[in-house]
Amino acid sequence: MPMRGNRVLEKLRAGEVAHVVGGHSHTANSIDFMGQFGFDGYWIEGEHGDITFDRIGDVSRACDLWNMASVMRVHANETGLIGRTLDCGVSGLVVPHVSSAEAAKRVVRASRFAPAGMRGMYFNRRGYGTENSEFIAKVNDEILVIVLIEEIEAVENLDEILAVDHIDVFFVAPGDLAQTMGYPGEMYRPEVKKVVSDTLARIVASGRNAGSLVGDETFEAHAEIGVRFFFTVFDHWLRAGAKAYWDRVAALK
Length: 253
Hints:
Shape: globular
Helix content: 40-55%
Largest sheet: 8 strands, parallel, barrel
Distance between the termini: 60 Å
CATH topology: TIM Barrel
Number of helices: 12
CATH superfamily: Phosphoenolpyruvate-binding domains
């Protein structure tokens, strides 16, 4: 039995744009429901959400049913946390607050088996049906590794961070970046949007994959820059649908 692959990585390596969705819910049922809409991956929120280790296997299996990458954000750049999360079966990892080259190297060491890194040896469900040696070789090639550029310090150290190998996406996160610029809660402020756009352009110019959070205000602009990893949340679609419903109710009165 072959390993499951990683649709996000496959698209990025083909020079295409990968689309990942997420939202307030991280249950197997909600992911199974979202699978029908054709997204390449589902963002599992482990920094701000309620996901626990005993549920990671089920939610990542729900992604597998639809050939979506299970992309999980952990809450810290810690070796044990990164390794355990991957051991539970996700196919992608997002690490927050990577603001230096050394922090980026820690991510690689924790998320890749040798020779690229020193991830702790463990055979998990992503390798069922394969030999240990095949699993180790394949998993290094199929795990998606994303680091978040979300502090102004990371922007200042960007060239050094981009020089670190074995990272697949450098994702510019506008919310925390705005806060470190002195504008908490104002990620669409012009000064913040300029730093985000300039940073994305630097990532693209370096030949690495840029990622961003996209919505109505940023979708086309970031596409024009050359961003190839798009993350969007479905919460605002629910809000818009609910508002449209109540508008129609009000029109009947």
